[in-house]
Amino acid sequence: MPPAAPPQPSHTRNPGLPLDPGWLRATRVNRPAAEQYCASLPGRRPVTGAHRAAWMLRTVGLIDLTTLAGDDTPGRVQRLCAKARQPMRADLLAALGVVGLTTAAVCVYHEMIAPALAALRGSGIPVAAVSTGFPAGLSPMATRLAEIEASVAAGAAEIDIVISRRHVLLGDWAALYDEVAAFRAACGPAHLKTILATGELGSLTNVARASLVCMMAGADFIKTSTGKEPVNATLPVGLTMVRAIRAYHAATGQRVGFKPAGGISTAKEALVWLTLIKEELGDRWLSPDLFRFGASSLLGDIERQIEQHVTGAHSAAWRHPMG
Ligand SMILES: O=C[C@H](O)COP(=O)(O)O
């Protein structure tokens, strides 16, 4: 049973490209075709038994374990970080012969960076901070840039920014490019994840074009959603974004990561997302340097499923808190 995603050679950061309006104009997405393809995904690579358990464990190593609530406290973040360090009960891991399994990162608001860092000390698990006026992104630009800089200075290794949706809705691609490029510069060594808030972008064609603009501006990851929009990560949106990543890789040789986030709460859903990645981008992307789930409750369901696999008996959700 593999402990987590196998180690992969790291890739260079995406340096970006000049904005290419012609590429954007030539990019269109056929929604019915995308929906039809996504409907077929669950049946494409069914996994059962020990394989299913192995894939669930691999999923754990791809999670940005997240708390983004107005009532977050240092205590809640400490409990979350304990879960990130040891995502499952020791007896379950021992039964499967798994050692060293952790989540990929912990994702919090700026104010929770310090308690998260303290709780994760020595674990090697990075802290990601949401930023730029998350979730709406409507703070003044200077405030948004200062927020990034403050979070990097506080020790966040990854910054999850939100884009200005109006730039997409107005087709102002230069404004979006300039915004993301400025965020990238403010991040310095921290990796930049750009949240598109796809549920507010109007069309899959807009999602594809916004994905390309973010990558041209130097995004290390493109991420679907904040988890706060009425519609968050959906498979047609995911397909659109991973095909943009594939097109960008074909054109530049540069690998950009993908993070579906918001509403992914069951192992069954997560395995379909992994099928999407395997089919569209290949195994190289099934690694924490190129793929993350942004999720607050997915881990709890995975732990429950793993307990059922190990014991053969039903496991209730209450037995796996803070996952
Ligand atoms: O970035 C992560 C999301 O906010 C998590 O959303 P969720 O609470 O629906 O799992």
Structure in words:
With 323 residues, this protein is an alpha/beta fold. It has a single domain, classed as Aldolase class I (TIM Barrel). Helix content is 46%, strand content 10%. It has an eight-stranded parallel β-sheet. The chain is globular, with a radius of gyration of 19 Å. The structure holds glyceraldehyde-3-phosphate.
Q: Helices and strands in order, then pairings?
A:
Blueprint: H1 21-25, H2 31-40, H3 49-60, E1 63-66, H4 74-85, H5 90-96, E2 105-108, H6 113-120, E3 127-130, H7 141-154, E4 158-162, H8 165-169, H9 173-187, E5 191-195, H10 204-216, E6 221-223, H11 235-252, E7 257-259, H12 267-280, E8 293-295, H13 298-311
Parallel strand pairs: 1-2, 1-8, 2-3, 3-4, 4-5, 5-6, 6-7
Helix pairs in contact: 2-11, 3-13, 4-6, 7-9, 9-10, 10-11, 11-12
This protein binds glyceraldehyde-3-phosphate (G3H).
Summary keywords:
single chain, 323 residues, alpha/beta, TIM Barrel, eight-stranded parallel beta sheet, 13 helices, 8 strands, 46% helix, 10% strand, disordered N terminus, binds glyceraldehyde-3-phosphate
Estimate the global geometry from the Cα principal axes. globular
Strand order of the largest sheet: 7-6-5-4-3-2-1-8
Instruction: Tell me the name of the CATH class.
Output: Alpha Beta
User: Compute the gyration radius: what is it?
Assistant: 19 Å
Largest sheet: 8 strands, parallel
Count of DSSP-assigned helices: 13
* Small-molecule components bound: glyceraldehyde-3-phosphate
* CATH superfamily heading: Aldolase class I
Mean pLDDT: 94
The strand count comes to 8
Number of domains: 1
Gap between N and C termini, in Å? 21 Å
Structural class by secondary-structure content: alpha/beta
CATH topology: TIM Barrel
Helix content: 40-55%
| Unreliable sequence segments | 1-7
Oligomeric description of these chains: single chain
Strand content: 5-15%
Family: Belongs to the DeoC/FbaB aldolase family. DeoC type 2 subfamily.
Catalytic activity: 2-deoxy-D-ribose 5-phosphate = D-glyceraldehyde 3-phosphate + acetaldehyde
Protein name: Deoxyribose-phosphate aldolase
Pfam families: DeoC
